[in-house]
Amino acid sequence: MEMKPRPDLSIVIPLYNEEAVLPALVERLRSFMDRLSPLDAEIILADDHSSDRSPELLKNICRSDARFRYARLAKNSGSHVAILAGLAQARGECAVFLAADLQDPPELILQMLDLWRSGHHVVWAVREERAGISKADLFLANTFYRVLNLLGEVNLPPRGSDFALLDRKVVDALLKSAGSHPSVGGEIARLGFSSAQITYTKEKRAAGGSKWTLKKKLTAFADAFVSFSYAPLRAMSYLGMLFSLLGFMYALVVAVLRLMTRTPVQGWSSLIVVVLVLGGVQMMMLGVLGEYLWRTLEAARQRPIYFLEDTSEVDTAAADKQPRELGRRFGT
Ligand code: UDP
Ligand code: MG
């Protein structure tokens, strides 16, 4: 099938060990693309260095259908980086990213396209709260989100949005500005651009298990938090002030007791408590500082955030577009 230089839509799909879900995914995407015509779409399969049979299967798909393209990251880097790698390959007038497991229904893209055509540069597909979740959990999650939004320097992306459509302008902006530990939703929210939301209910995973381990989730959370909030740094200063205030007050108490009652204040227990508490708080503050400092270091190094190991075609122009290209270091 001949392709225009720019398809109307690029669909970027991060994949990590998804061999179980591939047949269902490809079938669903093919029938979706049929519904899409006369618009044409390309699909970019961003393989996050899968270790199962996915690469082989994916490349076969690309060989048999020119609308599919393949790019494999040099190492497993998490879906956010995989999405950026896919977006760098995307040539469409607009681009959508969504998970491989069909929890996000591709058919929703039709409604997203309508909103895009009516002038919105970003269209978030926001999942509705799961029915099974308890009131307490929901309350906690909401409070947490609000607090983050309040403390953060920027607006957070809508809750539960790992599915969105971006205009070409936004894709280019995103690729220019994503940092070394990107959190895609957050980066998009930070950019600005007029946006719209639609809600949908997340479906069950079509096959296979979740690829997000607790460790990956915690890392993603820390990345998102550190890149959108300086509140922990501020909190450290406040905590420091609070502790010195308490210290002065206690010093007064000790002095007064010593003058009024001649008996010296009993020492060991209170001393050890103070030493341990202060020591702990200081360590914690150092840790927080370290989180920010470490990211500063990474940003200062300006290394590309991923490398491609294999692609279904050689697209040097797209490869040049990835964030933090080496050339920038030499001022080109
Ligand atoms: N994914 C990825 N790299 C990873 C982990 C996950 O590219 O290291 C992809 C995964 O293949 C899927 C998407 O990210 O397409 C969302 O992952 P998953 O469905 O496992 O997460 P959950 O829905 O449980 O949050
Ligand atoms: Mg999923």
Write the layout of secondary structure elements.
Layout: E1 9-15, H1 22-36, E2 41-47, H2 54-64, E3 68-73, H3 79-89, E4 94-97, H4 108-117, E5 122-127, H5 135-151, E6 164-167, H6 168-177, H7 184-191, E7 195-200, H8 214-228, H9 231-260, H10 268-301, E8 308-311, H11 316-319
Parallel strand pairs: 1-2, 1-4, 2-3, 5-7
Antiparallel strand pairs: 3-8, 4-6, 5-6
Helix pairs in contact: 6-7, 9-10
Q: Would you mind describing this structure in some detail?
A:
The chain is of the alpha/beta class. The chain has two domains: 9-229 and 304-330, Spore Coat Polysaccharide Biosynthesis Protein SpsA, Chain A; 231-301. The protein is 50% helix and 13% strand. The chain is built from eleven helices and eight strands. An eight-stranded mixed sheet has the order 7-5-6-4-1-2-3-8, with helices on both faces. Helix 1 links the parallel strand 1 (9-15) and strand 2. Helix 6 packs across helix 7 (184-191) and helix 9 runs antiparallel to helix 10 (268-301). The longest helix is centred in the last third of the chain and has 34 residues, at 268-301. It is elongated, with a radius of gyration of 25 Å. Bound molecules: uridine-5'-diphosphate and magnesium ion (MG). Magnesium ion (MG) binds next to loops.
In short:
The chain is 50% helix and 13% strand. The protein has 332 residues and is an alpha/beta fold.
Name the CATH superfamily assignment of the largest domain: Spore Coat Polysaccharide Biosynthesis Protein SpsA, Chain A
Instruction: Identify the strand order in the major beta sheet.
Output: 7-5-6-4-1-2-3-8
Text of the CATH class of the largest domain: Alpha Beta
Label the structural class. alpha/beta
The percent of residues in helical segments reads: 40-55%
Radius of gyration: 25 Å
Q: Please count the helical segments.
A: 11
Distance between the first and last residues' Cα: 37 Å
Mean pLDDT: 82
Strands, count: 8
